[in-house]
C-alpha cells in the first residue's frame, strides 16, 4: 500500500526554497513537490527543471486553482506573506509560510483567522525548532541540569551588504536584520523559556545605503523572573550563529544554533560535555511534522498563539530600535 503524501506547490522561485526548503520537502517521508509558480513562466520552467518539479505555472493564482495541490510553501518577500497566505487558505490549501510570517501582530492574526476559518493547517517556517536537540535541552533544563536559568545570549549575523538590490533592503517590504535573522534568537528564547517577553530595548544601525533598514541591531529582551535575552543580529557583519543558555550551575551552548547540526555542549564546573544528535535535515523534519497535521489531524507542533506572540515580539524589537526607547510588550 502506497502511503498518501502531502502534495506541495511552491509560490515563487525564491532562493531559500531552491537551496533549502524544497530539497528538505523532497527528502522527507510524507511529502512531495508537484508544482512551482512564478510571475515568469520561463523562470518557473528553469527552476522546475533544476529541482525535478513536474508542473509549472506562470501565476500564483493558477497554482492555487490546481485541485491536485494540498499545501503551499510561501517564501515571498515579507510584505506579501499575508495576502498570499490568506488567498491560499481561501483556496483550501494548507500553508507553510516563511518567517517572519507577517509585518506585525495584526497581520499574523489575520492569517491565523483565515486559516482557521478555511480549516487548513498553518505553520511558520522556523526549521531549527524541529531539531530534537531543542526538546532535549528543554528537558535538561526542566530536570535542573544547569540549575536555574539566569539568562540567554543569541547571535545571528552575516554580511550581504554588497548586494544593494536585495529585497531585504526595502523597508516597506519588511526588510532589515531584525526581521531576517533577529527573529531566530527571539523565537529561540521564547521556545526555551516557555514564556513571553514583557519588554524590549534595542539599539540599531540604520543604513542610508540600504534603504534605511536596520543592518545591525543589539537588544535586551526582558522575560519574567528577572531572566533576559541579550542578542544581536546583522546583515553587515561577520557570520555568527550561536545560542548560550546560562544557568546558576552550568550553561548550554549551541555553537551552530540556527544553521547547523544537532550538536550542543553542556559546560559545568570547567568541564565540557559534547552532545551529538542524529543530524536529520531540519527542513525534512519540518515538512514531516506539517504532514502529520495535514494527513493525521495531529495538532501543529507550534500553536497559532505562538505565531502571533512571536510576531508581537519581533515587531516590538524593531519598534524599540526606531523609537530609541524601552518598549513594553503587551
Automatic annotation (TrEMBL):
Keyword Oxidoreductase in the entry? The reply is: yes
What family, per the record? Belongs to the Gfo/Idh/MocA family.
Which GO terms label this protein's molecular function in UniProt?
Answer: nucleotide binding; oxidoreductase activity
Gfo/Idh/MocA-like oxidoreductase N-terminal domain boundaries: 6-124
Q: Keywords on this record?
A: Oxidoreductase
Q: Any idea where the GFO/IDH/MocA-like oxidoreductase domain is?
A: 135-253
Supply the Pfam families for this chain: GFO_IDH_MocA, GFO_IDH_MocA_C3
Alphabetized Gene3D superfamilies for the sequence: Dihydrodipicolinate Reductase, domain 2 (3.30.360.10), NAD(P)-binding Rossmann-like Domain (3.40.50.720)
Name under which the protein is recorded: Gfo/Idh/MocA family oxidoreductase
Does this UniProt record's set of keywords contain Lipoprotein?
Answer: no
> Which InterPro entries would you find in this protein's record?
Gfo/Idh/MocA-like_OxRdtase_N, Gfo/Idh/MocA_domain, GFO_IDH_MocA-like_dom, NAD(P)-bd_dom_sf
Amino acid at each position: 500500500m502506497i502511503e498518501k503524501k502531502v502534495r506541495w506547490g511552491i509560490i515563487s522561485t525564491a532562493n531559500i526554497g531552491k537551496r533549502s526548503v524544497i530539497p528538505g520537502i523532497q527528502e522527507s517521508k510524507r511529502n512531495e513537490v508537484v508544482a512551482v509558480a512564478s510571475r515568469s513562466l520561463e523562470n518557473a520552467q528553469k527552476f522546475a527543471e533544476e529541482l525535478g518539479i513536474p508542473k509549472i505555472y506562470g501565476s500564483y493564482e493558477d497554482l492555487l486553482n490546481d485541485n491536485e495541490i494540498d499545501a503551499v510553501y510561501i517564501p515571498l518577500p515579507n510584505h506579501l506573506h499575508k495576502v498570499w497566505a490568506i488567498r491560499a487558505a481561501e483556496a483550501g490549501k494548507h500553508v507553510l509560510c516563511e518567517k517572519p510570517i507577517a509585518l506585525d501582530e495584526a497581520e499574523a492574526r489575520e492569517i491565523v483567522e483565515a486559516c482557521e476559518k478555511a480549516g487548513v493547517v498553518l505553520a511558520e517556517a522556523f526549521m531549527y525548532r524541529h531539531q530534537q536537540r531543542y526538546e532535549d535541552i528543554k528537558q535538561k533544563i526542566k530536570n535542573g541540569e544547569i540549575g536555574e536559568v539566569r539568562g540567554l545570549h543569541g547571535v545571528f549575523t552575516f554580511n550581504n551588504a554588497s548586494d544593494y538590490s536585495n529585497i531585504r533592503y526595502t523597508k516597506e517590504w519588511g526588510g532589515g536584520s531584525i526581521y531576517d535573522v533577529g527573529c531566530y534568537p527571539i523565537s529561540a528564547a521564547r521556545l526555551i523559556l516557555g514564556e513571553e517577553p514583557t519588554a524590549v530595548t534595542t539599539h540599531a544601525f540604520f543604513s542610508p545605503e540600504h534603504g534605511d533598514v536596520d543592518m545591525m541591531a543589539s537588544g535586551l529582551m526582558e522575560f519574567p523572573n528577572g531572566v533576559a535575552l541579550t542578542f544581536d543580529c546583522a546583515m553587515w557583519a561577520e557570520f555568527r550563529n550561536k545560542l548560550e543558555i546560562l544557568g546558576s550551575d552550568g550553561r548550554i551552548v549551541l555553537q551552530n544554533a540556527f544553521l547547523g547540526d544537532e550538536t550542543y555542549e553542556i559546560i559545568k564546573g570547567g568541564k565540557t560535555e559534547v552532545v551529538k544528535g542524529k543530524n536529520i535535515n531540519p527542513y525534512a523534519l519540518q515538512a514531516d511534522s506539517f504532514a502529520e497535521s495535514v494527513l493525521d489531524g495531529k495538532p501543529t507542533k507550534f500553536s497559532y498563539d505562538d505565531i502571533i506572540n512571536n510576531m508581537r515580539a519581533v515587531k516590538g524589537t524593531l519598534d524599540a530600535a526606531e523609537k530609541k526607547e524601552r518598549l513594553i510588550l503587551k
